[in-house]
Amino acid sequence: MSWIESIQKAINYIEVHLLEDITMEQIAHEVHSSVFHFQRTFSILTDMSIAEYIRRRRLTLAAQELLNTDEKIIDLAYKYGYDSPEAFTKAFRKQHHVTPSEARKKQGPLQSYNRLVIQVSLKGAEPMKYRIEEKEAFQVVGVKRTYNCQSGENTREIPQFWNEMNSKDFDKQLIQLNNGEIKGVLGVCVPDSNYAQNSLIDYWIAADHIGDVPDNLLAMDIPASKWVVFEVHGPMPDAMQNTWKQIYSEWFPSNPYEPIASAELEVYSEQDPFSPDCYSEIWIPIK
């Protein structure tokens, strides 16, 4: 099964079991994928988490039933996974901007999120500059926080983590400690050791450092790997986000490599992050 076929098969599985209490582990198992990379790929390609996709699709179907059947609102609430009519109404209004009762009376337009069909662009209109590196194990030092990928917590809160650390000039401390081969401040995303059970990732703001670990920081050893290293050119955050999308929508489908469930790195230089000439990198371990 090809990379793109597995992603589409997983979406098809979600659709078949949309009204059931399915987990990320069940979805990934269905397509013989790691939870980490399925969730990572899905969120990069669609700008939403699996949980958000399921919520939007359920509320789209609920709106259709409101318009086309006489099903009671309380029954629809339970059918689509809500513990109470109040919780259903709150979620319904957030997506559709009208209440279920107003929707049934056709008092406003509804937001329809259709079933996803993943399409991959292989045209390569924009060239990607990359290199393959073999690197021995190395140490990073920094601070970390743990986020839930299934709920989309990582997408919402990692930018806040960066803002908090930058406001404390933490990046300057890391630059001073950066005496390893990879130059710059690192954003390191790695599956939590219990990820298979709880869909957590550890996210580090760190630096490649050789030597003793300062008392206020933690350390992590990143194993020896083969890496594909992509150049990122342009202002943050758009340049980084666009490169991630291009990697998963163009590069991986047209190359013989697969990502592995290990640390992924974003490498930020000391340049002005908002400059059109800003240079950064993305490091992905591969097999």
TrEMBL record:
Superkingdom of the organism of origin: Bacteria
SUPFAM superfamilies, sorted: Homeodomain-like, Probable bacterial effector-binding domain
Domain HTH araC/xylS-type: start-end pairs: 8-106
InterPro entries: AraC_E-bd (IPR010499), Cass2 (IPR029441), Homeodomain-like_sf (IPR009057), HTH_AraC (IPR018060), MarA-like (IPR050959), PH_domain (IPR001849), Reg_factor_effector_dom_sf (IPR011256), Tscrpt_reg_AraC-type_HTH (IPR020449)
Keywords noted in UniProt: DNA-binding, Transcription, Transcription regulation
Pfam family, one: Cass2
Domain PH: 1-12
Protein name per the record: Helix-turn-helix domain-containing protein
Organism: Lysinibacillus pakistanensis
